[in-house]
């Protein structure tokens, strides 16, 4: 029973993606929607990403210093561990999970409200492909801006670690030196590939739950919750798969 329902949902999801990526009817209309979604889904997330990244970078540095409190281990190893933690996992994955909650619930509730108020049906009557017009610009906006958010998160996470280091954890010179030791630029590429995939999953899965809402306001709220949970699980599973493919 559960398996059959899952297969049916997967089929509806794939059909929705097929409708989403059809050729747009009006390029200018889609471009305006892209700019609006870029501001709503991307730029409006800068504040929370900045605050979380800064303080988590500081906490990771302090905790790493606590666990590496050994006179035989050079202090700059603290910076190396902080760098790898932030670049490889915290910024691309944890920030994307946070965005799944913030952005995903917004998308699901917005489309769900449009569905129950029959605005999506009105678009279909007008000859507009609602899946393409409402979802494609959102996917493009987050896929474009999410890597930028993650780069900012990485930078601020390392800055937070620096601020913690000069607060008494270690010398600033050792911290800066540790950031450059054995640095592998491919780790940045790996992280950005993950964020691109995560952005697609967040928008498409959240849009699916919002687009197919049936009922009223209660069902919109339920589906918004399902969207956050499902996109978070998809991020975690795809994170494992991408790590296996790109790093192993």
What does this protein look like?
This protein is an all-alpha fold and 248 residues long. It is 85% helix and 0% strand. The protein contains nine helices and no strands. The protein has helices at 2-20, 27-42, 46-67, 76-116, 119-125, 130-169, 172-180, 186-211, 217-246. Helix 2 (27-42) runs parallel beside helix 6 (130-169). It is elongated and about 70 Å long. The two termini are 36 Å apart. The mean pLDDT is 90.
N-to-C span? 36 Å
Order of helices and strands: HHHHHHHHH
Radius of gyration: 21 Å
> Please, what is the oligomeric state?
single chain
Coarse shape = elongated
Mean of the pLDDT scores? 90
Structural class assignment: mainly alpha
Low-confidence stretches: none
Outline the biggest β-sheet.
none
Strand content: under 5%
Strand tally: 0
Helix content: over 70%
SS element count, helices? 9
Q: What's the quick description here?
A:
With about 250 residues, this protein is mainly α.
